Amino acid sequence: MRNKFLTFLALFILGLGLVACAALDSGKDLPVRHLSSEDAGGSTSKCTDCHEARGDKLAFGTFVHTSTWGSNHRQTAYQNEAVCSMCHQTSFCTDCHAAQTELKPSLKNQSDTYRQTPHRGDYLSRHRIDGRVDPSSCFRCHGNPKATKTCVACHG
Amino acid sequence: MKFSLRHFCTLGVAALLFFPFSAFAAELNIQSDTILRMFQRDTAADENAAVLPAYEYLQVDIENPDELGLAFHLYGWGRADLADNEYFADQSSGELLYAYFEYTRQEAAFNARLGRQYVFEGVANEALDGLRLSSDLGRFFSGSLYAGQQVAMTKQNGRGGDSIFGGRLANHLAGVYDLGFSYKKIRNDSTDAEELAGLDLALYLPANIWVRGFSSYNLETDNFAEHSYELNASVGPVSVRPFYEFFQYEDYFGTSANSANPFRFLASTGEELTIFGADFTLPLDALVLTAKTKFYDYKVLDDKSQYYAVLATWAGEGQSQLGAEIGYMLGDVAQNDYVLTRLFSYWDQLAEAPLDFVSCEFVYVAYDQDIYGEDRSLFASIGTGQKFMDDALEVKISGDYSKDPYFDEDLRGMLTLSYQFGKSL
User: Fold this and answer.
1) Cα gap B198→B224, rounded to integer Å
2) Are A8 and B262 an interchain contact pair (Cβ–Cβ within 8 Å)?
């Protein structure tokens, strides 16, 4: 199995190398930066206000920031990092997904109640239950030795 | 290695000195967020000791906004405890979250990043010091590759023998499907710490229906760690998102040296968690109504839990929003039961007021079983702010009150100074 992966990686490096000497453009021609909300004349969080839900370049309908987007964006982001970065700098992501931080996102941005940041209110009490019910959701952000620094004070 | 404010400043100055400004018309943008918190805690030094942590979040970006090419990005935070009342284990702390040079070309969407950076793709949710390359590989393929040392393991016997590498190869037809294969391997102190492979899929069907999914395979334990799949469809004006998730704890949490408590012990439980449910969203102009259902089923524990929630948000001009949410967690065991109520508002249409916005939030949770003798928690916060100096400086103050199982009564204050600086170089 591992030999297959090494083969895959070698081919992959070769493929990337080819980019340097050949025109391997996808033809999507997506912009690196999206218009700001000021330049776009309104909020850019509902893509389908301006784009087709199933467009030629992207399925824009899948990027609409609904009221559940804060808890459901994982798979979209893991497939489309370049699309996220059109509007968001990495610092926006690291408010929640940081290797190590002391201020939880709802505290760092306490006044921004319109952002559906996780762990709002007295989450210290609630995390005992949420962690028991679904520890997989905790693991995504706290699942390595550095990010778990806030956990070890009590959990050892 | 800890990064303090001094380290941020040193790195920032170094970046400014060594950046090839003359090569192109670059623009320097600095965002500084200084946060001062105030609260009281019982510490080893005193009862009701004042705790005054001051945080600095500094972001530096050097790039040409009108032209692709070379750019530099830096972001990190530092904290100093001004009161020094032994509340924090260390009087100062901090972290360089990212600092990397980036080169981007429009052709083939080529992107190269060198330095400390985050990689969010496929099976990777990692911070690393190293190199990442990504590019289109013709009309139907694209790929990325990264290698370096992982940031998360810096405290595990230093960084000698630590490494991470991986990538994602995707096959796609724009607007129809996207199929990705990803791989990640982490070594700690010259021994294998984590090895994952993943398959991700997005399928865009007619009638505004799409399917998205992800499976990860733990190559160390030789078994699937996770399956997560969802479907999105519209039934009249209502958007429906049914979803299914499955986790095998031994393979999901069993990430060897890269794992940590409290998750490490879960890997040995042999538990299998199945989660399924659906979200329903009904937009009514500015008002959006949402209902959420989530069902949890445990194989070993032979237990079940359910979560139900309804959420209403009203959006006005600017960022103005009003919202209300009621959630109900119901478990086979009563200690998992709670009812959550949340009300929030953010209002930035204050033409006649000397303030730019006012926000407030109220969260009330009632627990079925006492936690430390309390069966409820109450949290309330209020905040406001104003911009000065042609909007370059924003001053925000907020306060919150909490009465909960951990604190009889807790009052906290926060002052935030956000400063933006931009200059053509």
Assistant:
1) 9
2) no
Residue A26 φ/ψ, nearest 5 degrees:
-80, -20
In chain B, residues with a C-beta closer than 8 Å to the C-beta of A62 are 202, 204, 210, 212, 232
* Helix or strand (DSSP H, E) at B339: strand B338-347
The pair of three-digit structure tokens given for residue B92, joined into one six-digit string: 């100062």
Q: Which residues in chain B are closer than 8 Å to A108, comparing Cβ atoms?
A: 35, 57
- E strands of B91-176, at which residues? 92-104, 111-121, 124-136, 141-150, 163-173
Phi/psi for B108 (5° steps) reads 60, 15
The interface predicted TM-score (ipTM) is: 0.86
Per-domain residue ranges for chain B? 1-105, 294-304+325-425
CB B92 within 8 A of CB B4: yes
**Shortest CB distance from B174 goes to which of A32, A56, A68?**
A56
Q: What is the pLDDT of residues B204-243, one digit of tens each?
A: 998 889 999 999 999 999 999 999 999 999 999 999 999 9
User: By CB neighbour count within 10 A (0-12 exposed, 13-18 middle, 19+ buried), where does B270 fall?
Assistant: exposed
Q: Which residue of B has its CA nearest to A34?
A: B65
What whole-number percentage of chain B has pLDDT above 90?
69
Q: Indicate yes or no: CB of B329 within 8 angstroms of CB of A23.
A: no
CA B183 to CA A152: how far, in whole Å?
29
Q: Does B238 touch chain A (CB under 8 A)?
A: no
Q: β-strands B49-51, B53-63: how paired?
A: unpaired
- What's the CA gap between A94 and A77, in Å, rounded? 13
Contact with chain A for residue B219, Cβ under 8 A: yes
Rg (CA), chain B: 25
Give the residue from B91, B111, B137 with the most A CB atoms within 10 Å of its CB, the best one to mutate.
B137
